[in-house]
Amino acid sequence: MILGIDVGGSTTKIIGLENGKPVGMLQVRAADQVTSMYGAIGNLLREHEIGLERVSSIALTGVGASFIDEQIYGIETCKVNEFQAIGYGALHLSGLDEALVVSMGTGTALVRAAKDGVTRVGGSGVGGGAIIGLASQMIGKSDVDAILALAESGSVENVDLSVRDITGSEIPLLAPNLTAANFGKIKSTASESDLALGIINMVFETIGMLAVLTLRNDTIRDVVMTGTLATFPQLGPMLATFSDIFELRFTIPPDAVFATALGAALISPDSPPGGSVRD
Fold first, then answer.
1. CA distance 256 to 270
2. Considering only CA atoms, which of 122, 120, 267, 146 is closest in space to residue 200?
3. 74 Cβ contact partners less than 8 Å away, ≥ 6 residues apart
4. Which pLDDT belongs to residue 147?
5. Domain 96-252: what homologous superfamily?
6. What is 2-84+259-266's CATH superfamily?
7. Residues 164-216: pLDDT tens digits?
8. What is the per-residue pLDDT across 85-114, written as a single tens digit (0 to 9) for each?
């Protein structure tokens, strides 16, 4: 068994691969990356009744991997390039041969992934960290579940300025419900729910437009969304709108949260023939 572990800035994701097939996966949060990594390993092994003797190697990736230099529990441990892991993990989950992969965690990374290689094309500081930080200051909430619960009953019409708000007639290629200015029309009656949804909407629209602009002069038409934010229910409807307008195919694959951890395991030197996506 190979354990692929994505040690992120705020959460750690882990997946177990045995003979190239997933055995289990989970994510944990902790005060620091090293604690969360060891906690993820312990929880996965206990939850699936896996003994340490079954683990042949551990593949680490993510920003927190730089804090770990030892062989974990005496098991062969390697570090995997995060952008390679992002790209190959997303291609494996989506079944695509090439795509722009958007990995949404505390920040956002964009990589151009194909079977013959992965290239980092850019990134942004706008991501989950922005949602938590802005929500903490604007509505006094820093817990993701609490922010999502509030956003469920929110309306961006009480927060955002739309195209229909600033024009009396239709503009070619601009749907009237498109956002003209995030938080450009905050009403005095805007509730905490409206603000929570407005924050999430602004982050997702920013990330979506980054993907659109990245592919303006590219032949790739598929965009795979991965990372922790891929589970937010507001992402799908926004992507559907962007897909119609910009003629791109946006995909949120199953287990998108674990794409980078999966990629780390797949490109690990110990990945078995047929399971590895290494050249």
1. 23
2. 146
3. none
4. 98
5. ATPase, nucleotide binding domain (3.30.420.40)
6. ATPase, nucleotide binding domain (3.30.420.40)
7. 888 866 676 677 778 999 999 998 899 999 999 999 999 999 999 999 999 99
8. 999 999 999 999 999 999 999 999 999 999
**Can you tell me whether residue 61 is helix, strand or coil?**
strand
Please tell me the number of Cα atoms within 13 Å of 216 on its side-chain side.
5
Whole-angstrom Cα distance, residue 18 to residue 3? 9
Using CB atoms within 10 Å of the CB of residue 84, give its burial: 0 to 12 exposed, 13 to 18 middle, 19+ buried.
buried
Task: Spell out the domain ranges in the chain.
Answer: 2-84+259-266, 96-252
What is the Cα–Cα distance from 154 to 195, expressed in whole angstroms? Answer: 7
| Tens digits of residue pLDDT in 119-141 | 999 999 999 999 999 999 999 99
Do the domains 96-252 and 2-84+259-266 match in fold?
yes
pLDDT grade, residue 268 (50/70/90)?
A: confident
